[in-house]
Specification:
The protein is built from ten helices and 16 strands. The chain is an alpha/beta fold. The longest helix is centred in the C-terminal third of the chain and has 18 residues, at 286-303. The radius of gyration is 19 Å and the shape is globular.
């Protein structure tokens, strides 16, 4: 990867307990600059990871100045992600691509999955909010202004307490950044096979679109991320990253941050996997999932 890439990561509040391991996996991807804006400052040992102190009040003022909208909660930043190219324009000038990511992730070898051929031929890399890259071009950075063409003001999207999922192709019922880019003739690289997005309905690890019988776990070793099966010992799949979603703050018992496994019950030293690290008959989180969906639906109705 000879393109210059910067990741913009605003985060306010307490970091999840996996942050040190996430930073380690970011640091191993030395060809990418990772820039945090946060009220938490961590002294990074990696030259490609930088923290800039910023309170949530600071970014509210920054957004008001750059975009002209008001943001009420840090969670609403998910709708602002596609605007980071405009909000943080002074930080991305020297880069070919800018992007964003969640921090409930562990990264593998990014350049193995996102190479020069992909960067040369696409304007946006991946379609979801937990990891995306954008070509650093003014029309793309200000693409959010085009919502007005399709019957909704960007201010309505950004100032509402409702989460519009503007950063993702969530459904065909709303306007999102992917829709706007495609309508304007830009190309998006979509490949759901290169990342593991964990299904929140289950206690065990089941990446979306994978079968639910193999007791999957992950192995991180010196910058490479593999998904393995405790049932089928021959199955080994390398991924760009794993996204834990609602499985934050898993217990951590790791001696070496460069080598460990991740099971549904926590982070452990490598080669320690056993059957007790997986869930049995209590695997389905049915009550929790129904409660989660109803709560989110009611919240959207109230904030509409």
């Amino acid at each position: 990867m000879d393109k210059k890439v910067i990741m913009i990561i605003p985060y306010f509040g307490k970091f999840p307990n996996n942050i040190d391991l996430t930073l380690e996996s970011m640091g191993e991807n030395k060809e990418i600059k990772w820039l945090f804006f946060s009220d938490n400052i961590i002294k990074s040992k990696f030259k490609n990871i930088q923290f800039i102190y910023m309170s949530f009040e600071d970014i509210k003022l920054m957004i008001k100045k750059k975009i002209g909208t008001k943001i009420n909660t840090p969670y609403k930043l998910c709708d602002y992600k596609p605007l980071y190219g405009a909000i943080f324009d002074e930080y991305i000038k020297e880069y070919d691509f800018w992007g964003y990511c969640d921090i409930d992730v562990i990264f593998g070898n990014i350049k193995k999955f996102i190479n020069n051929k992909i960067l040369n031929n696409y304007d946006k890399i991946l379609e979801l909010g937990h990891f995306s890259l954008y070509r650093n071009e003014k029309k793309i950075n200000y693409m959010y202004l085009n919502t007005n063409k399709y019957g909704i003001s960007y201010k309505q999207i950004l100032e509402s307490n409702r989460i519009y999922v503007f950063d993702e192709n969530y459904s065909n019922k709303h306007i999102d950044i992917n829709f706007l880019l495609l309508k304007s003739g830009y190309k998006i690289y979509c490949n759901k096979k290169i990342y593991a997005d964990i299904n929140i309905k289950y206690n065990n690890f089941y990446p979306i679109n994978y079968q639910r019988k193999k007791q999957y776990y992950f192995e991180y070793k010196n910058g490479t991320l593999l998904m393995l099966s405790n049932v089928d010992k021959k199955e080994r799949t390398e991924f760009l990253y794993v996204h834990f979603q609602q499985k934050k703050n898993l217990p951590i018992n790791v001696a070496d941050k460069k080598k460990y496994i991740i099971t549904p019950k926590g982070f452990f030293n490598i080669n320690m996997v056993d059957n007790n690290m997986f869930y049995g008959i209590n695997n389905i989180k049915l009550f929790w999932y129904i409660k989660f969906r109803v709560k989110r639906k009611l919240k959207n109705i109230i904030n509409k």
